[in-house]
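Thread: quick sanity check before group meeting

JM: Hey all, I'm pulling together slides for Thursday and realized we never actually wrote out the predicted structure for the chain we discussed last week. Dropping the sequence here so it's in one place. If anyone has concerns about the input, flag it before I start.
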Amino acid sequence: MITVIGGGSIDEKDGMTVRGEKIIENAKTVIYQSTRQGCYKQGALSLDKIFEAAEDFDNFVKTAVNFIVSKGEGTVFVAIGDGVNNNVSMELCREHDNVEIIEGHISGCVSAAARVLGRSFDSLCYINGYDYMKIQPETDKETVIYQIDDKLLFWDIKSKLLDYYPENTRIFIDKTAVLLKDANYISSCDIFLPKLDILEKKRYSYRDLMFIVRELRKKCPWDKEQTHESIRTNLIEECYELYEAIDEGDSNMMLEEMGDVLLQICLHNVFECEHGDVYEDDVTTIISQKLIRRHPHVYGQAVANTKGEVKAGWDEIKRQEYSLKSKSDELKHISMYLPALMRAYKVVKKAEKQGIELSGDIVKIIEDIKQGKDVENNSCRMLLLMVQLCLRIGIHPYISMNDGVSAFINTVENMENTGNNSVVSGIVDVSSVCFKNE
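JM (edit): ok, ran it. Output follows.
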């Protein structure tokens, strides 16, 4: 067995339990994470040289674990912190079957700043300095970043903090209060970060957005009156504006329009939460579960080596989820609220995958329309056949028609600017309309 003992924060002398101290006294091999630990005993092994020689922190962790394991059964590793939330001990548990952790005193894991401010361990969010660089900070919690034992790590953390906290935020480095912009590295330390008010934040999460929407529902006369039904068309409009931004290739516009779409989702989410039996993370939970369920080749044992195999698997899982037992069931499952041309494309495409195709003499149908025979029905037949033709030659009719309308408008504008008489007479030859690929 390998034993991990939490030694408390790096400057703590009495951060470990009595049991931990007794185990160290009787151990054959003791390895401290660093000679700088307050509980370090002279002459014992440490991981300092491994840390200094490592290419990066991940390499240090793996090399440290290999070194500890190489010392054999009965080895004791004294970790910085409580012994549980320590990168080396966590990797040791993953790589070695027989590891016991003797957790350090909770008081040993509370930063000096937290003790000065009278904060208890349970009220704080604790995270290792190296792990902090891998996450999105939560600025609505009082946080202690511990085990900052390297100058470069300190400056990386400070740079990241300046992306999320105002530069005049009052933080603590151990017991010393400083403004974030003036923070400097002197020696191994903890950083205590305050909770930010919603108006102080530089960046906002989905949770923050939900908080703001709830506030608006309580305090804004307009927002108070809204319902699912009253704003449902806004979602469609915002989606089309995002569609336009994507077509324009405008990154800033895309970000703004994505935010507008997300706002609509948050509003509908809040409406549902107000019923009392829905949680705000039900939305993200349901979609996450769906993605996991429909990607068994990533999260399960299934195999899919091509995008065709992925799509086939997705469709089969979808059929099972919605109990789609017939071909018509699958066609009906395509929303009737889609724009007509988009719905036609999806239905005809799905039907072709099922082995169903439309047939008809489109030339005869057009002649019948010209002669006024059953015009409405024949027009529908012609459009369906045109959708199928577009599908077979690899053109999306909805996108193509949108491009065509824009091209027609541009042609009229160009003719007006050049004084073309055909516009004055009300005739525009369709062959004169300039499309994208011409």
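AS: nice. The chain has 20 helices and ten strands. The first strand starts at residue 2 and ends at 6.
JM: adding both to the slides.
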